[in-house]
Amino acid sequence: MLNASIKACPVRGGKLKSFDQAAVMKMPGVRKVVAVHDDAVAVVADTWWQANSALEALPIEWQGGTPYNSADFEAQLEEGLRAREAFVGNRQGDVDAAFAKAAKVVEATYRVPHQNHACMEPMNATVVWTKESCKAWVPTQDGMSALASVAEAAELPVEKCEVYKLHLGGGFGRRGSSSGDHVSQAVKIAMSMPGTPVKLLWSREEDMQHGFYHPTSRALVRGALDAEGNLTGLHIRIAGQSILAALRPEALKDGLDMVTMQGLAPANLAPGMETQALKYTFPNLLVDHAMRNPPVRPGFWRGVCANQNAIYLDCALDEFAHAAGRDKLEFRLAYMKDCPELQAVLKAAAERSGWGNKDGVHRGLSAFYSFGSYTAACAEVTVDEDGKLKITRIVAATDPGMAVNPQQIEAQVEGSFVYGLSAMLLQEVTFKGGEVQERNFDTYNSMRLEHMPLVETIVMPSGGFWGGVGEPTIAVAAPAVLNAIFAATGKRVRHLPIKDQNLREL
Fold it and tell me: Please, which contacts does 196-199 make with residues 24 or more away whose CB atoms are closer than 8 Å?
């Protein structure tokens, strides 16, 4: 088996103009330099280190591409928050009338950036190709999609191709149906060396540069309160990128990306969306989406749009309760009257954490329904005089309907919290001139063990249905912590990540 390292044009849509093969062919172990498709070049060598070292030394010229800048797109998102036209995802009652009669209107704008999957194992595939067959060994979440990519790239019938699925060193959606890029590259490289197994492994920098990124979005959330502090109207306007418009445009429903509505959707929005329905009951409600698509590949990222929607909804409810002068738990429970399952997990998390105790502990709540499961969290935090945050404890309650292996559920909750809190605290992908600026873990960081809070998981299956575990629980971690930060400091954190923000500056 030989090894390959690859570089694709760092600017989306750009092409490979030229490369000087002679400059690296005499380097140790180098066997071949291969142009891949029309936008990448790979070096094949005896070892991956030799291949990558030669690739780094290879003179390459690129041309074209879209010089996208993240900073420029922020204005489009801001415009989308106030745009007259938007796709309606959920409408109940008369929101305009509720706001016209309101004793108080509270509004807030929240922001979630592009995020990378940043799997510990970079993209890779091993392929052996002949004119008669093609075999591939691929860490994948979607074997059928990988097989389709292999057959297309190999220019062979599907029945002449085989894919062996390997265990993942992280997937989170990156190794799902949108992961054919590296598989296709590996096949094309192997085709240049018939009969020889070639293992393609992306460098960390290549993995960061060419992801399918979690969409960036903003939300303007407005609440209408009456004189008694009841929420009589709620409008959530989301402005941001559509995953389906890029990956599965045929799945759009009259232009609406239903994935954008996860956790905020009416149960009758589309077949299957019952598992993503809004379980709060508000007298007047409007949730809509002003689609604004940058030239960035979006992708399904663990929890997908439920993550930011939980932040938009639950942080806003916290703000409304504060403006109404009401207890945050009691306020939420009042709008869950039609969903005893969501009430139950929220009460359980709050009670276990000690909600309402006069013990000086700063707590924040969150509750959400997505992927068919009811989840809630109560986070406990401290913020010192210098604004340094410490998340000390999170109590998480989950009702997935059935619980076959409670220990595995606990592990999934803890793992999802690592992922969700890392994104909230540290992670943001930015583009300048079309290139990703965060190219390794020094600039796209992840939580360390010393910063991980104690997680206590309450598994409370109510029976009768099968919900998810690995994705729904991620949604409640960030909003619970953000609400706890307000309890500790009086400061609302509405734009993520929080890594460069002083939590003591009001």
Answer: 196/1, 196/2, 196/128, 197/1, 197/2, 197/126, 197/127, 197/128, 198/1, 198/2, 198/3, 198/4, 198/44, 198/126, 198/127, 198/128, 199/1, 199/2, 199/3, 199/4, 199/48, 199/124, 199/125, 199/126
The tally of domains found in the chain comes to: 2
Pair (234, 192) in one structural domain: no
Residues 300 and 174 in one domain: no
Question: pLDDT tens digits for the chain (506 residues)?
Answer: 999 999 999 999 999 999 999 999 999 999 999 999 999 999 999 999 999 999 999 999 999 999 999 999 999 999 999 999 999 999 999 999 999 999 999 999 999 999 999 999 999 999 999 999 999 999 999 999 999 999 999 999 999 999 999 999 999 999 997 778 999 999 999 999 999 999 999 999 999 999 999 999 999 999 999 999 999 999 999 999 999 999 999 999 999 999 999 999 998 766 678 899 999 999 999 999 999 999 999 999 999 999 999 999 999 999 999 999 999 999 999 999 999 999 999 999 999 999 999 999 999 999 999 999 999 999 999 999 999 999 999 999 999 999 999 999 999 999 999 999 999 999 999 999 999 999 999 999 999 999 999 999 999 999 999 999 999 999 999 999 999 999 999 999 999 999 999 998 87
Q: Are 498 and 424 in contact (CB under 8 A)?
A: yes
| Cβ atoms 209, 10 nearer than 8 A | yes
Nearest CA-CA partner of 77 in 293, 261, 221: 293
Token pair belonging to 209: 């540069």
Together in a domain, 238 and 303: yes
CB-CB contact of 349 with 377 (8 Å): yes
165 and 249 in a common domain = no
Q: CB-based contacts of 421: which residues, under 8 Å, 6+ apart?
A: 391, 447, 452, 453, 477, 478, 481
Instruction: Give Cα 26 distance to the centre of its chain.
Output: 43
Instruction: Report the interhelical angle of 306-324 vs 474-489 (nearest 10°).
Output: 30
pTM, 2 dp = 0.96
Strands 2-8 and 285-291: unpaired
From CA 477, how far away is CA 410, in angstroms rounded? 14
Domain of residue 283 covers: 71-116+214-489
CATH value at residue 130: 3.30.365.10
Cβ neighbours of 449 (radius 10 Å): 6
